Amino acid sequence: MFDAIDYSSAPAAETALHALFDPVCEAGILTKDELAHLSGEIDELLEVIRNRNRPVEEYWNAFRAQFGFAQQAGEPFPMNAANLCPEPTALLNAANTLRLQYNDNVAQQTRMARGLRVQQLERAREYIAAGLGVSRPSDVALLRNASEANNAVNCGYRGWRAGQPAENVVLWTENHPTNLAAWELRRRGAPFEIRMVNFQYGESDDQIADAFIRNIDVNTRFVSYSAISNGKGFRIPDGVMMRIWDHAARFDHCHVHVDGTMVWGARPVSLEHEPLCHSFVSSCHKWFLGPKETGILYMHPSKVQNFTPSIFAYDYKIEIPEQLPNTALRFELLGQRDDVNIITLAVTQIIWRELALGVGSYNPYQRVQELSNYLVDSLTRRQPPARPWELLTPASPDRRWGIVRVSAPRGSKPPLEQWLFDNKIVGGGGGGDEFRLCPHIYNTRADIDKVVLGMDTWRDSR
After folding, report:
1. Which residues does residue 149 pair with via DSSP β-bridges, in sequence order?
2. Rounded CA gap, 15 and 236, in Å?
3. Do the Cβ atoms of 425 and 450 come closer than 8 Å?
4. Are strands 434-437 and 429-431 parallel, antiparallel or unpaired?
5. In sequence order, which ranges of 161-284 are alpha helices (DSSP H)?
6. Do 403 and 232 form a contact (C-beta atoms < 8 A)?
7. First-to-last CA distance in the chain?
8. Whole-Å CA distances, 25 to 19, 28, 189, 345
């Protein structure tokens, strides 16, 4: 599931861009000058990504410069990828060009079956599916975020059976609220019980797997967990995921649902290679660096018919289907959408395809892990008189990926995340007496050094 996608036989990025935009240009909807401007900006970004013949930090500094925040001297920089990421300036400019051009021609004929907009949306789905290692694009629904996708699962299931023993849903206590509290809400009107899974971070892989498995039985209809916790950043080990999947496979009616919001863009994802779930969700505006209000829901076709969407409206071709599609597209009956965001999402995937070709420290997924390791080391491996910070995220790299959370008791001071923001250092996250940082590939070691210095200054100012 987390093997890298092989892009060696995929068309070049420029070819993919032209396949997306040339038909629109040939139809006169996008002018040649607009296409040249759009392509030129993306090409410049791609050249930065491809130029790996330089030291690692210099390479990622050059990539950092492709974001608007890098041009804002004296302003806080982002380091909260688990919540929201900026988009590269070239991608934003492309989206703005597309939005202005889209507004010049909103003819319904372009947005119906066989229309040029529909062709672009279908091409976008093909690109995203390929980037997820999914061979059938119709198995991927393009939704508005992972919250909507999670709710399509927990609200859409219609197969509950009353009786004793009650059917059950197995959930990890560190799931996102849309995959935890939302199930509690559904339970008020459906005859199932919830079995909560909890474990200590120091337990072995087998102990963690057993914590799930002992709750899964013939009456289990769903097993659902976050691949990486958005709170403290615990990563469910791959071997644990495999054991959960193998055990759940013993029960035909058991559906394994994985929230991959903290994974997509932080780790490679290949959903059909050694599959570990029946459905997978993610938002695109986080680690994937994509446009807001875009997200994905992958669902294996063998499970789709168990769900009835809570929204029934036009599909992406402005058609009302006579019957629900027998694919993930049944979750896309949402009425008119922001088509430009979805088309921009296709461009985001093209950019990621180039990024993913990097090797070693030039690879974006390895870079995410290296940055979080550097941050953890900077906070915990310290020479006196510097005091280490109390790490709430697991110390072992095998149990985390990208997210780092520490204890930050504030006493009478402002919260650490607010102090760092007010002092123009970083936009992090937190809450209460804790602080979360999520460095991404637009961050550098120098960014981390600056944040850690600021954290020490805040703590020492008591």
Report:
1. none
2. 37
3. yes
4. antiparallel
5. 181-187, 205-213, 238-248
6. yes
7. 47
8. 11, 5, 51, 19
Separation between Cα atoms, residue 161 and residue 166, nearest integer Å: 8
Which region holds residue 313: left if phi is over 0, alpha if psi is between -120 and 50, else beta? beta
Cα separation, 50 vs 301, whole angstroms: 37
SS3 at position 294 = coil
For residue 138, the SS3 value is helix
Distance of CA 160 to the CA centre of its chain: 30
Q: Does domain 361-460 correspond to CATH entry 3.90.1150.10? A: yes
Give the gyration radius of the chain's Cα atoms. Answer: 23
Query: In sequence order, what DSSP letters do the residues of 425-452 get, joined into one string?
Result: SEE-EEETTEEEEB--TT--HHHHHHHH
The conformation of residue 291, written as its DSSP 8-state character, comes to: -
Phi-psi region of 222 (alpha: psi -120 to 50; beta: other; left: phi over 0): beta
In 10 A of CB 383, how many CB atoms? 5
Report if pTM > 0.85: yes
Residue 207's nearest CA partner among 218, 195, 198 is 198
50 near 14, Cβ under 8 Å? Answer: no
CB 84 within 8 A of CB 146: no
Residues in contact with 2: Cβ distance below 8 Å, sequence separation at least 6, in sequence order = 238, 263, 267, 268, 269, 270
Does the bond joining 385 to the residue before it have cis omega, within 30 degrees of 0? yes
Query: For residue 447, which phi and psi values (nearest 5 degrees)?
Result: -60, -45
Structure tokens that stand for 192 in this block: 């199932």
Per-residue pLDDT of the chain (462 residues; tens, 9 = 90+): 999 898 877 889 999 999 999 999 999 889 999 999 999 999 999 999 999 999 999 999 999 999 999 999 889 999 999 999 999 999 999 999 999 999 988 999 999 988 999 999 999 999 999 999 999 999 999 999 999 999 999 999 999 998 899 999 999 999 999 999 999 999 998 999 999 999 999 999 999 999 999 999 999 999 999 999 999 999 999 999 999 999 999 999 999 999 999 999 999 999 998 899 999 999 999 999 999 999 999 999 999 999 999 999 999 999 999 999 999 999 999 999 999 999 999 999 999 999 999 999 999 999 999 999 999 999 999 988 889 999 999 999 999 999 999 999 988 789 999 999 999 999 998 878 999 999 999 999 999 999 999 999 999 986
Q: How far is CA 127 from CA 50, 296, 347, in A?
A: 20, 12, 9
Q: Where are the domains of the chain?
A: 361-460
E strand spans, 107-226:
140-143, 167-172, 192-197, 220-226
